[in-house]
Amino acid sequence: MELADYTEEELKGLLDSGVEVARIAGKEIRDVFYKTKATETKEHNADLVTETDKLVEDIIIKSLKEKYPTHSFIGEESTAASGKRTLTKNPTWIIDPIDGTTNFVHSYPYCVVSIGLTIGTQLAVGIIYNPMLEELYTATKGGGAFCNGKRIHVSGQEDIRKCLVAATVSRRGLEGKLSSLKNLVQAEIHGTRNTGSAAANLCLVANGSIDVMYDYGLHSWDIAAGVLIVEEAGGVVLDPSSLAPIDLLARRLLAASSMKLAQTVGPLLVHVDFPRD
């Protein structure tokens, strides 16, 4: 079945299933949030994983598999172990058990459960839950975006000199990222902010707090849910290097409150290439 074959009621059922397990996962995070966490590193020193990441992902996948045994799954921790990142037309749940693991390790309250669902490779459902702030962002294709049940919208800002930008600086691609920041500051933006979680940043674009967010080196589980939430809130999410529609596996993203703002910001970014997923 393609996404167009699903009724509004069927999409709501899928959303409800995701929300239910996101809340269960959030409780696991909340229960250990202020405790000391044992960590391991993956690709680099700041790419951390904890036992809670693994536990939460197992809970989410097990629960959803019981309800939807024919669906496929892409999870950050299981994918990191197997190396498989295939996105097919089969309904696929794309899961980041804790987006913002470094925040979680430091007990900084911007760590979220992110669950997206694609159907026929199209985003159909997006769920992002911050258990520490008790914020639940949700969206279904064509159904709008919500935070704690209240409809949300992007700011609609079009003027770069009046925008607040979410930008991440890390060791990977450092020179390019610093150059992008310099270009934006020289364009007289209002300022930059960063939660340390791509999913949380996308939620802030969706609710109008942030006008632009861009990042490089992301994986599909970092952004799948957030992309749909921004789009359903009236924003645009593009490939920053071409301003073409977003490709979940290309590892780069530009989200903005308006197409005009995206078209202004895109040329100011110094693009950083990462291997495609």
Characterization of this structure:
It is a single chain. With 277 residues, the chain is α+β, with helices and mostly antiparallel strands. It has helices spanning 8-32, 51-67, 76-82, 101-105, 174-186, 198-206, 220-232, 259-265, and strands at residues 39-41, 48-50, 72-75, 92-99, 112-119, 122-130, 135-140, 144-147, 150-151, 164-167, 191-193, 212-216, 236-238, 252-256. The strands form 3 sheets. The chain has a 7-stranded mixed beta sheet, with helices on both faces. The protein has a 5-stranded mixed beta sheet with strand order 11-10-12-14-13, sandwiched between helices. Strands 1-2 form a two-stranded antiparallel sheet. Helix 6 (198-206) packs parallel to helix 7. The protein is globular and about 50 Å long.
Spatial separation of the terminal alpha carbons: 25 Å
Order of SSEs: HEEHEHEHEEEEEEHEHEHEEH
Class inferred from helices and paired strands: alpha+beta
**For the report, how would you describe the main beta sheet?**
7 strands, mixed
Overall spatial form: globular
DSSP summary, beta strand count: 14
Q: Helix count, per DSSP?
A: 8
Rg calculated over all Cα atoms:
17 Å
| Strand order within the widest beta sheet | 3-4-5-6-7-8-9
How confident overall, as mean pLDDT? 93
- What are the segments in which pLDDT stays under 50 over at least 5 consecutive residues? none
Strand percent estimate: 15-25%
Helix fraction, binned, reads: 25-40%
Entry summary:
The chain is α+β, with helices and mostly antiparallel strands and 277 residues long.
